[in-house]
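Problem 12. The chain below contains 223 residues. Write out its predicted structure in token notation.
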Amino acid sequence: MSSTFDAKKALIVHAHPESASFCASQMRAARDELVRQGYEVDVIDLYENKLDPVLDRGEFEHVEEPFKPQKEQLKAVKEGTLDPRIREDIDRVLAADLLVFSFPLWWFSVPAVLKGWVDRVFVMGAVFGGDYGILDEAALAGKRAVALTTTGGPEAMYSEDGAFAPIESFLFHVNEGIFRFVGYEPLKPVVTYGPAHLDDGQRENALGAVRSEFETIDERPRA
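Solution.
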């Protein structure tokens, strides 16, 4: 049996304003299954966390003009002047072997609060750049990340013959532009299509499917 010193660690960053939503239910299903698989699970609920998602000059000391956010981030890392809440979330990210972004697909993207969290927490000099590079040289290289999401429409709409492109095209910026850029291996996303159109029994089945996906998360293929 693994000790607490070598237990796998997962961080779930959850972005939905309603705790009774299906999106929140599937996050909890994923969390509970990860625990069953031996993970220590940390959860950041962005709507409870209330971290300002706007990256601006106000969070930095002695800003040089013109304001260059990444330059100021790098300086703050070196000088130890990062906002303590940002430093705390960075440390939670760095501690995790697996990162899960839990969110509803809004306007074919992530909610603004999640994008803002990335802007403020995936800091240059802490997770990439500075003493690190990008991709395989970034601070999170060797770790894995997965998108756990819901859509408004049914699966048939997200296909080559559907109204929209396959879901992978809408998550490209998450898998490649966020996860892979900072070193993660992006895993195949876990998607529940159109939960608002499901009855109670179908929703329970969908939650069971989410649990099954996370039961084998360690063998999950790359996105």
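Discussion. Strands lie at 8-14, 39-45, 98-104, 144-150, 185-186, 190-192. Students who got a different answer should revisit the alignment rule from Section 12.3.
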